[in-house]
Task: structure prediction
Amino acid sequence: MGTTCHDEIISHEFLANVLQASRSFAYRCKNDEAVTMTYLAGSVVGITGHTPDELLYSRDLNYASLCHPEDLQPMIDDVDAAIANNESWDIDYRLIRRDSSTILVRERGAAVRNASGGVEYLQGLVVDATNESVLRRQLQANIDATTTANREILALADNIAASVRELAILSINARIEAARAGEAGRGFSVVATEIGNLADKNAGWADEIASRMTR
Result:
């Protein structure tokens, strides 16, 4: 019996340390409007600025009151939809911390049902998603920069294509003039042919650039 209790204590300490290190907390709550917390473990203070005692059973404030006003209803709707479909949820929203700053969190949870199929309680994990938010912004910035660069490259391809058309016209005109000049224009005809070959190569490159950038 003593060994079992000791193992449970170690397990709880291990879980608490893991949750603290990963800037997350585990929760269990009632399925009510206040999101009344009945169990909290982990980095509650680090994420919310409040102690678990303040939040448990809504002693001083309820969890719903910490949710950003713009995010509260969408969060509730997503959770309700997941419960109705008997699915887990994976959502993100902002919390208002004790110091009035906001923090983006990601919540993964599910409903636990009783024998009759009713919802007994909700439980899951809330993770600090600040770094995720930074990565999202960086990714979006990279995407925007890449999109701009693509547009510029495509514009250059269009310019090449325009130059190619001009070269092709010059080549045709040069061949016509060379034909008119007869024997004296034979050298000019060779030059005209090379201009035409260059135009064909440039046209191929322009098409390849545009094709790859479009893909």
